[in-house]
Design brief:
Elements: H1 17-36, H2 41-45, H3 56-75, H4 93-96, H5 103-121, E1 129-130, E2 134-135, H6 136-162
Antiparallel strand pairs: 1-2
Helix pairs in contact: 1-3, 1-6, 3-5, 3-6
Amino acid sequence: MTVPRVQRPDVPLIADERTMLEAWLEYHRATLVLKCEGLSESQLKSRSAAPSTLSLLGLVRHMTDVERGWFRRRIGGQPALAAMYSTAARPDADFDDVDGADPAATFGAYQAEVDLCRAAASGVGLESTVAGNYSVRWIFVHMIEEYARHNGHADLLRERIDGATGE
């Protein structure tokens, strides 16, 4: 199986701010993986519509780089940590270079990166200011927004691939 099975967590209706932000982020992380569940390698690499290079696998690669950039480079204080897929010369390589990508390795890298990002943010206060003069609170809100936007893309991609729709 290429795509790991995930259980999308329930988001509490009442909770403190940190719990709520972490729960919504976990919900969106799981949603992206769920949108890929049950698809073949070629379906995961399928592009939406020319000239776009968007694919579900590209979205997972993109979010791996985004997680790394915000949580490990900024909150975790690892500014020299390079992106896994994008480069200065090829900023869209996360989306563009999926044809030769190994989906199992991509999902493994994504899951590992998310684990490292959770650890980087653990115990860092929401009001803390990190590299680039961002608050940790801003980063959490931004990441929820980033996932929500790309999960909307994933909805459309999945529907185009096999007609599946859902939450």
